[in-house]
Every structure is written in C-alpha cells, then in structure tokens.
C-alpha cells in the first residue's frame, strides 16, 4: 500500500452496496457519452434482436410497450468511479424479448448496439435471468435523451458503459466481439465487484 | 477477440484511434515536482513518472490517492502536457468544492509527494496530429485540448488547428498567456473592454466551418455535460458531420 502523505479522504461510510473504488454520487447523474446526443423521437425508435436466434424480430415503440412491464429498483455503477443508489427504471425485461426470438443453444455472447452506432459486448448470461432490461422510464418519467432516451439497455450489475444508450439492437453470437470501449482498452465484462475496469484487470 | 462487430445502425460514433492498451493495467508511482497556479480555481501539477510509456494529446489517466487506513480514491484526469521524452507529465485540476482528490491537490500536496497513476487510457479522444482539428472547450475542459495545441506547436505541425475556449472571465481563463493566433477565447460573465460577453454561439462556429480545410475538421469538444450538449449542437447545426465530433464530458 502506497499511502499518500496527508490524504484522509471523505468520511468513511459503511455501505455494503458500494463496490471497491467507487464513491456515492448522491443526486448527481453524470452524462459521459462520447458522441452527439441523437434526436430520436419514440416514433422512430426500433429494437431488433437477431444473429443466432430462431426468429429474428424488430419491435417498434408500441410493440415493445405491449410486452409485460418490469421495473428495476437498485443501484448503478460507472467505471469513472461514481455509483448512484436507489434508482428506479421502468421498461421491459430483456427475457421477454429473448423469449420471443429464442436464442440457439450455441449462443454465448451478444453485441448491443445503439442508434448512434455505439457498441458494447456482453455474455448472454449477463442479459438473461431478470438482470437486464430495455428501459424507457426513469423515476416515473420518460428517460431523458442525454441518458439514453427514448430507450436504453440497462444491465445494472455491470459498469454502466455496458448499458448502451439509444439501444437499437442485439446481435446474438457464439463468441465474444469487443465493442466500442472494449476496443479502447476497457474490460470485456466490467463487473464492478471485481473492479474489472480495464482490459487485464 | 479479433473480429469486431459493425452495427447496422449508423447515426454516428467517430471511429477509434489505435493506441496501445498495454500500460492501462499498471499502477505506477508518480512524484510531484511542481505545482503552479493557473487561475483562482485551477492549478497545474507536474509529475515525474519515470516509467511513463508516452501518450497522445487528448488521452487521460487514472490517479489514486491512498489514506493511512487503506481507503483509496481514484479519479480520471486529462493530461495537459504534450507528449515528450522528459519523463514528466502535467495535469491541470479544478478545485472542486468538497472534492476529496482535488482538495488534496489544492490544499495539501507539495513537491516531493508521491501518488499513483495508471495510463494513458482510451484512444477515443486522442489526436495524433494527423487531421485538421477544431477544438472547443470550456473551463477545465480546455486541458486535453491544450495538450493538442502544445503538441501542434512543439512539433511545428502545419495541419490546421483552431481552439475556441470558453471561460467565465479573463481571470478564470486557464493557460491565458499561452494562446496564440489559433485561439479564440469566449467570456461568459465578464470580458476585457470591447470584447462581447456571452456563450459560444453559432457566430463563433460558422466562420470556422466556412474556412474548412481539405478533408474537413475533426472536432473535439470537452467540458461539462451542459456545455458539451450546447457546443455539439452548434457544430451539427453548422454542418459538421456527427461522426466527426468527439466529446469528452466531465463526470
């Protein structure tokens, strides 16, 4: 341990929900997208799941909203080291979409991509079992464009760059292919509890 | 992981810039050699990092401070200095109210203190000096852009480069004495006599896009989210292609 002379840091808070190296951002919700926020009205939003699936399919706004609603209440963690507690997102569980397209038994990974062209890769196991959503509401309100509205992917148990804003689709694969930040040195999986920030962590 | 997926959508994410990710995982020791005040709220910290692998202008690093009880705080900071072989790098830090890391740098740190860094990180916002660059920053958002300006100058590059930098007042303008003909400062609260006060506007951006170099500008925007949204919208409205706008937002 390399102690920094005179550094005490903020008061210690015993918070079992805070992953290593993270701090509580409180009411702040920093925006960190690397691209221009797109002007994407709900009427033009679509979400497609294809690749290694039995029935590739594209949903529009109304079709996606016809699926059973689901809510995530919990915490989110950004690789830049802020965490935000007690957030509430509304949308549809990804299981509902995957149940329709039926991934093949050989499927292991997915690349999520945005209407902006942003990409991020995820193991399929991180997208199933009630741990991932397509979210269009935050705190009961429509999700703001700068936070990924009209709809974003939400995978709250991984660092938040995996929760692609302006989600356009998932390509289901039988291997891993790095997405945008992953090609720029970020970790393939991004588990905050194991502090998987950068490739090799 | 060798294949890369190309999404069928294409609104606009600028392509990546190839950089080495080799050094990203290693924490290394850095020694403060100098701290100099830039403005009432910002100071530049010079660090000796003997094993620094070099960086491209626009890249950032992660920095870690550790308390005696083992508590550690880590933050991302843009690199202010141009790449060189001095074994030193410079960061310019705002004093964030209540900030545990920036507070330490502004009130406790002195030459000789040792901290830890890892990096350089991420190639997305890097500028290798290969394309004409249109830089727009506000406040300490000018820091990674200044690395580009300094690189441009140090290497005597003839590729066009312009900087629009927004500050509250001349006193708050970081690196004020270093700017040359490539830079247009914009003041939002108070300005020298004869200089208008106001935000960066279409009137600032339009002439730069009108004098576009062959192949067009690669635009780099850095600042708060509010500023980044405003500036990137101005660029799009002035005709800059969305896939040639790179944005680094604070947070």
Identify the notable features of this structure and list them briefly.
heterodimer, A: 201 residues, mainly beta, Sulfite Oxidase, Chain A, domain 2, six-stranded mixed β-sheet, five-stranded mixed β-sheet, 11 strands, B: 251 residues, alpha/beta, Elongation Factor Tu (Ef-tu), domain 3, Rossmann fold, five-stranded parallel β-sheet, 17% helix, globular
Textual characterization of the structure:
The complex is a heterodimer of chains A (201) and B (251). With 201 residues, chain A is mainly β. Chain A has a single domain, classed as Oxidoreductase, molybdopterin-binding domain (Sulfite Oxidase, Chain A, domain 2). Chain A is 8% helix and 30% strand. In chain A, strand 4 and strand 5 form a beta hairpin. In chain A, 47% of the residues are buried. By secondary structure, chain B is α/β, with parallel strands linked by helices. Chain B folds into two domains: 94 residues, Translation factors (Elongation Factor Tu (Ef-tu), domain 3), CATH 2.40.30; 117 residues, Rossmann fold. Chain B has a six-stranded antiparallel β-sheet, with helices on one face. Chain B has a five-stranded parallel β-sheet with strand order 9-8-7-10-11, sandwiched between helices. Chain B is globular, with a radius of gyration of 18 Å. The two termini of chain B are 30 Å apart. The model of chain B has no long low-confidence stretch (mean pLDDT 92). Chains A and B meet through strand 6, strand 11 and helix 3 of A and strand 3, strand 4, strand 6, helix 4 and strand 11 of B.
């Amino acid at each position: 341990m390399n102690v920094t002379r005179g550094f005490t840091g903020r008061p210690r808070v015993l918070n079992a929900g805070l992953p290593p190296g993270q701090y509580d951002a409180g009411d702040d919700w920093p925006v960190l997208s690397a691209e221009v926020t797109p002007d994407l009205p709900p009427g033009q939003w679509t979400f497609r799941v294809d690749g290694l699936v039995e029935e590739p399919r594209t949903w529009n706004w109304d079709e996606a909203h016809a699926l059973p609603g689901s809510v995530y209440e919990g915490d989110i963690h950004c690789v830049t080291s802020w965490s935000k507690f007690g957030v509430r997102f509304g949308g549809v569980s990804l299981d509902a979409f995957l149940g329709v397209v039926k991934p093949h038994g050989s499927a292991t990974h997915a690349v999520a991509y945005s209407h902006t062209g942003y990409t991020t890769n995820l193991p399929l196991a991180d997208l199933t079992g009630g741990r991932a959503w397509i979210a269009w509401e935050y705190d009961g309100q429509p999700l703001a464009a700068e936070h990924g509205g009209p709809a974003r992917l939400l995978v709250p148990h991984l660092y938040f760059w995996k929760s692609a804003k302006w989600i356009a689709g998932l390509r289901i694969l039988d291997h891993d292919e790095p997405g945008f930040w992953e090609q720029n040195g970020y970790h393939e999986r991004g588990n905050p509890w194991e502090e998987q920030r950068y490739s090799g962590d | 992981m060798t294949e890369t997926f190309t999404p069928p959508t294409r609104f606009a994410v600028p392509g990546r810039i190839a950089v080495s990710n080799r050094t990203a995982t290693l924490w290394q020791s850095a020694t403060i050699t100098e701290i100099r005040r830039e403005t009432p709220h910002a100071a530049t910290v010079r660090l000796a990092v003997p094993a620094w692998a070099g960086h491209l202008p626009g890249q950032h690093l992660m920095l870690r401070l550790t308390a005696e009880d083992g508590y550690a705080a880590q933050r991302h900071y843009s690199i202010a200095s141009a790449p060189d072989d001095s074994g030193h790098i410079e960061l310019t830090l705002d004093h964030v109210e209540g900030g545990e890391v920036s507070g330490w740098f502004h009130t406790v740190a002195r030459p000789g203190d040792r901290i830890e860094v890892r990096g350089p990180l991420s190639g997305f916002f890097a500028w290798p000096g290969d394309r004409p660059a249109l830089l727009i920053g506000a406040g300490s958002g000018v820091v990674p852009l200044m690395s580009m300006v300094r690189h441009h100058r140090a290497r005597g590059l003839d590729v066009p480069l312009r900087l629009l930098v927004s500050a509250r007042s001349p006193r708050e303008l970081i690196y004020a004495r270093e700017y040359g003909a490539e830079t247009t400062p914009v003041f939002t609260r108070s300005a020298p006599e004869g200089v208008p006060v106001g935000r960066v506007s279409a009137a600032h951006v339009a002439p730069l896009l009108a004098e576009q170099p062959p192949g067009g500008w690669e635009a780099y925007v850095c600042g708060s989210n509010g500023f980044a949204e405003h500036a990137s919208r101005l660029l799009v409205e002035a005709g800059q292609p969305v896939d040639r706008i790179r944005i680094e937002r604070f947070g």
